[in-house]
Amino acid sequence: MSDSPPQQPFHSPRSGHGDGGGFGAGLPVTAEATTLLLTGARLTDGRTVDVRLGGGRIQAVGTAGSLSASALSRVDLTGYLLLPAPAEPHAHGDTALTADGDGGPVSYAPDEVQRRATEAALLQLGHGATAVRSHVRIGDVHGLGPLEAVLQARRSLRGLADLSAVAVPRLLTGVAGADGLAMLRDAVKMGASVIGGCPDLDPDPAGFLEAVLGLAAEHGCPVDLHTDGDDPGRLGRLASMAGGLRPGVAIGPCGGLSRLPLDAAARAADQLAAAGVRVTCLPQGDCAALERRGLHTAPVRLLRASGVRVSAGSGALRDAGNPVGRGDPLEAAYLLASQGGLRAGEAYESVSAAAREAMGLPEVRVEAGFPAELLAVRGDGIAGVLSLAYSRIVIHRGRVVARTSAVREYCDSAVAVALDLPRQGRTEAGP
Fold first, then answer.
1. Rounded to whole angstroms, how far apart are CA atoms 171 and 203?
2. CA–CA separation, 254 vs 231, rounded Å?
3. Radius of gyration over every alpha carbon of the chain, rounded to an integer in angstroms
4. Is the pLDDT of residue 9 over 90?
5. CA–CA separation, 28 vs 390, rounded Å?
6. Is the pLDDT of residue 12 over 60?
């Protein structure tokens, strides 16, 4: 049974990007059960294939032209690279899109938070992220209102994208912490699927960790914490306390690890790896939840060399943490490849397979039997896609849910003809 009724075609939110004629221009966006045939798609191993989708899964993958097209909706992916869809493990939907305000205080009225969280998730979906984990602050004067609004956004997005919420209390120790802990329990009962927080900001970081990990064990929830990671002793204590907790612990953005002496950072990485603690880095910069903007990202190569499972997120999306944040997983991968020392394939894996794994989502491969969570990007290979990721087609639960069509044109000239420069047009990759 589908989680949601069939969605009507929709137009992209206010992103400032053209969609090459509108999302509803013939794309198959009706029932999830509709069978869809993707033709002429290139895979990362160089093969050109047809892919049949149905029931939210990949039914078959065959050589180009080998799968029957009768009674199927078709999308021509000639010139496109077909990939497992990325996921966004670290978003802030409650504060997204607030950097362009009038300078006054940000409104946390439930309808405003819901609108922001929904629009942010749709922007991220347009980039390719079919699943988003949103960290939501609770407590202070706003109580559980922002979380309730994000959960309502989650319900409204069913069938388009999977949105999950992380409850982020400010304090969990001392007199003020008692109220925070009670509110965190209420947040889990309301539907927050992950327990978060920032132990760095609590007067008793160890006590904060103990409270979070205890509550997570009690409810069987994963933990996803904000930390700068600049205190190796604190990271060691976290590793010793978190070891064995299921379904697991993730921390990030850990930019402070890059500022530690190499031997201290390596020891901390080894401890995290031994405890199974994952790290979510933010290549675009620290997010607003740390209440400051850092100059370093996590030492991804060092962490990976120690065996830490590293995913990458986008963090702030045009809020106080990053007024120009894009919320684009492919930009995070691009930065890891261009500045983080990863190969292009490793960088993309950090925003796709590793991100999905960190979020507890099923594995996706372009093979029969796997979930039909896919992203088609115009380009011949991963490196080209990360360099010029313009045109994208996003597939969630076996149907096309978003499309961005970039148009590249050159004026008539002898040099353009002689070089046979690549062009992208509105009629490409149509159904």
1. 8
2. 10
3. 22
4. no
5. 21
6. no
Element housing 81 (H / E): strand 80-84
The residue with tokens 């347009």 is 126
What is the spatial distance between Cα 370 and Cα 368, in angstroms, rounded to a whole number? 6
Beta-sheet strands, E only, within 191-248:
194-197, 223-227
The pTM of this model reads 0.88
3-state secondary structure of 157: coil
User: Looking at residue 424, what is its pLDDT?
Assistant: 56
Separation between Cα atoms, residue 145 and residue 112, nearest integer Å: 11
Q: Which residues pair with 404 in a beta bridge?
A: 392
What residues are paired with 394 via a beta bridge?
A: 375, 402
User: Does residue 11 carry a pLDDT above 50?
Assistant: no
Structure confidence at residue 6 (pLDDT): 33
Indicate the length of the chain as a whole number. Answer: 431
Q: Where are the beta strands (DSSP E) in 148-285?
A: 162-168, 194-197, 223-227, 249-253, 278-281
Contact, 393 vs 51, CB < 8 A? no
Judged on CB neighbours under 10 Å (0-12, 13-18, 19+), 427 is exposed
Between vectors from CA 231 to CA 227 and to CA 232, what angle results, nearest 5°? Answer: 110
Largest CA distance in the chain: 75
**pLDDT at 5 exceeding the cut of 50:** no
SS3 342: coil
Amino acid symbol at 244: G
Looking at residue 367, its amino acid is: E
Distance CA 340, CA 398 (A): 33
DSSP three-state, residue 13: coil
3-class secondary structure, 428: coil
Rounded Cα distance between 123 and 117, Å, is 10
* Paired tokens of 98: 């607030």
